[in-house]
Amino acid sequence: MLSLSSSPLIPTLLLLLSLPLLFLLIPHLLPPRPHPISLPDDLDDLSLFRKAAAVSPPHRSLPSSKSRLGSTNPKPKIAFLFLTNSDLHFAPLWEIFFANGSTNQFNIYVHADPTVKINPPGGVFSADRFVPAKKTERSSATLISAARRLIANALIDDPSNAFFALLSQHCIPLHSFNFVYNTLFHRSIAELAQLGTLQYRSFIEILTTKKILWARYNARGKNVMLPEVPFDQFRVGSQFFVLTRRHAVLVIRDRRLWRKFRLPCVWIQSCYPEEHYFPTLLSMEDPEGCTGYTLTRVNWTDSINGHPHTYRSQELSTELIYNLRKSNFTHSYLFARKFSPDCLSPLLNISNSVIFRD
Known about the structure:
358 residues, Spore Coat Polysaccharide Biosynthesis Protein SpsA, Chain A, 12 helices, globular, BC10-like, membrane, signal, glycosyltransferase
């Protein structure tokens, strides 16, 4: 007679009893997978991008240096694009920054995650500066979509928008508005004259740091990016940039690379689509039209879980602002991140005497 322990029914019974436990544990053992961008959201964006492309000729650049001297030409503007999922804590500091410029020199656009309660601070950040937005999620292509949405709205809103500066709610200015405006428009003329062209270049970081590229390239699955994006053309860079109008148009016209970058990641720990899409696209399409560096300073020396160093109020000083401005490239840094909300008061205290005193 067989013993109860040797019966084949026992393992089967134990397996059946353990299945509910496995279903409870598996979601905690596997990394979370972000939701892909829905088809309705993608089609909605496509309609917006087509509208933006229709009012923006693909080869139109900024006016030449000669035409800018004429009084009949509208003054070129900087479109400041704020991408946020929380309140704009540094709005009072930006208010002082924009007060140094004139309204015919800039426009402001805000993409605020609609799933988070965000209070428009008013002033230059009035409610009408908030563009129709959709949910954003880290480690997903939704951050690419949000940036493209901001660019498209800015293209449609004002044909005088010539530079498109993408920033976050954690960014602060490091110089006065006039310094930023002159850096982008006037100082670039001498630099580009030496290169024999009147076209401006975009300030976007484009790196080939192969130490991290392979894992990120395969974040959606091995060789999924082929054939549109070969590994040797895959790039990485800062999430924040300043694009020329012709590159802004290029971004919202793209469909080919977007088909790959919109795919959800399999390996979340290597998934940073927003740091790859823009550098890869512009590197493939117009590498000579990009500086290869960003104008936004970020401290990665003690990053945690993919987040850069966050400055706290006790770290704020005149020396810090001066150090954050320093760059190894042609231009000094114009913006910096990442700052905690408690930095607002000490920043306001040194705004006129240090930050906006160039």
